[in-house]
Structures
1.
Amino acid sequence: MLQTGKSLSTFAEIIFVANLKKIEVEAGEQTPSVLLDKEKGIFKIEGFSFSDNPHIFYAPVVDWFKEYCNSPNEETQVVFNFVYVNSTSVKFINDILKLLDGLFVKGKTAGVTWHMNPDDEDIEQLGLELKGLHAVPFKIEPKDPGRPEPPKKKFLG
């Protein structure tokens, strides 16, 4: 698992060394946790996403999905569970969704679950906007009160 103190170049190396089977990244102060496990069929991005350089964080994740789409599982269900996401991160989330659109259009079973707190109108609205832009089936679901929250880090002062 990538620790938050390790460099992002280490993150990229982990992706390519693992033959794109699994990525597991702990949440940072400005970046979400990521679990992409092809063998177990788990695809989750959770937490805060407001990095000053989202390209550095998300480019390897998008590349992983590009490679995954060449040989996807029978079913691909991606779960997004954001506490906060900024507009620059949304571009990369949109890139992931476009790749999922491609799977769906080719007849593969693919879908998105967008979790949101029932009182978080911003995350709900973002989910609705993204749902309207994409062909992949897209569920917006309030978080289950019994479900643990995604990893939270304190904002830097």
2.
Amino acid sequence: MPAIPTPPRPTFTRPFRPAHWVSAKTPMRDGDIVGAQRALADLGHYRPWPDLGFQPVAERRLFQGLKAFQKSKGLEPDGVMDPAGPTVQALDAARHAKATAGAKRPARDLLGRGANLPLDLPVGEGGANREADVKAAKAALGLLGYYPPEKARRPDGRTGTADGHDFEFGLGAFQRRFGLEADRRMDPFGPTQAKLDELLQPALDRAFGFDIENPASIPARLNRC
């Protein structure tokens, strides 16, 4: 029996977006099965068939790998992927991070996380709203004038409160200002994140004395971009 090939280094070119649910309990499209296999293989959670590679077969190994990935990211290990759910978003974020590992990136960011605005999962209305993601988004919006600067200097990771309303309102205002869909939500690799990330570096350059590893140093007043 030939050796099972080692998955190649991932080359992230586009997010994985299944057309329907990926689940052992529902009918699945061939493209979704193969797409899930490839995405999980990028991260070492699935190995293709010897000699045959990826095949549109919804086998047990696929769902075992999916559960293992979910568990590794602190998600419910149910072996199910909603086309717009947190597992798909986490899968894309992990593949992108692995594919770009070692690439030249900014050394520091608003919260010391390695890029101008890194997101692991969606934030805002209907988003997963992980604490670290919400903190980064609030600090970024505050720097650009779309979130109260006194709060942005010490951003927290909460939503669903009066402070969360300020955050979602500011996110929607930013989207309207730049002609984006004003859904008050920001997805990893989405247009809102891309635009916000693009504007951050010039704003940082204009903020004299701003320590990008310390959000508390954001000046009280900044001009909007």
3.
Amino acid sequence: MRTFLIALAATSLPLITVACSSSGSADEEEVVADEGALTVSDIAARGESQMRFPIAGRPDELCIIPKKPGGAYSPDDVKDEKKLCNFNFESETPGEPVALCPKTSSTNPGIYVNKLDGKTKAEVEAGGCRTSKVGTFKQSVTCSYTGSIIGYYHLSRLLGGIASVPVAVGRTMDLEKHKAMVERGIVAAKPVDGPGCDVYDGWVQFKAWDARPQTAPRTAQVYTSDFMQIYGAFQDNAKDNGRHPLLRTAGGAAGLNQFLGGSAFKAVSESTPLAQRFRGGAEAQLRCKGSSWQKTRPTWSSWTSCSRSRIATATSSRRPSRCLRKADA
């Protein structure tokens, strides 16, 4: 239960989920300790405000704006929080209707949320969501963690708005609706299926979890206690995002070896005391705050000038998370 409660309380979470492996080894999968799934009343009691979206014969879907622990929140942050919580995943009302499409890149089987731009929901989804993207809905599967996604945003504002981290809110989704999305994801991601762990394997894994959420490896981090909804973080669309040259530039085993041997992984796995690593990274990041690379699309040279501070703000020393083997899904 701690995952979502901490996130929605907007506690400073100095966490980062490091890059995924392509090995697909279940032996390396780190499953967060199961402390009991959230109940509907748990979720309903959280946040500074909420938006409810009725689902016929099922519990309402919820969007929760977390409480703010203090920090530099801009008027745009507040506006973006409300904007995210106004998007209706299923119906025309209340709020603004949007289209949903399965993510088909990287490893996380998340959901892209797109504007209709004058079309119907069915038309946009049938066309592969080529309209304006407003955000991504992710759960604590493969390399992502709901508490971290929400925590990045609030930690950034506690440190003065560093790193231009997008706004994130809490969101639930009806499980039956998600099952239909998973089927779409498996079909859409099949053409990109390759060796090892990729987004197709993530969708296949999610199908197995949705079929028996009571026994899923991360049941408390993904499903509500009545097993009628999934929950996760709904993050505003990142603007001008690019690949970080110190994290990973190649795929497969070559990319994993590059990552494990690079300065990025060493920064989060070294034996230096946690507080020292975080303090140094925060100070360096504050020095970088306001530099041109945070305001415009970064070049490789500008990335390297502040990249170590970005990496050093990460304080998780966990090894890279892996997908479960298909046999273990």
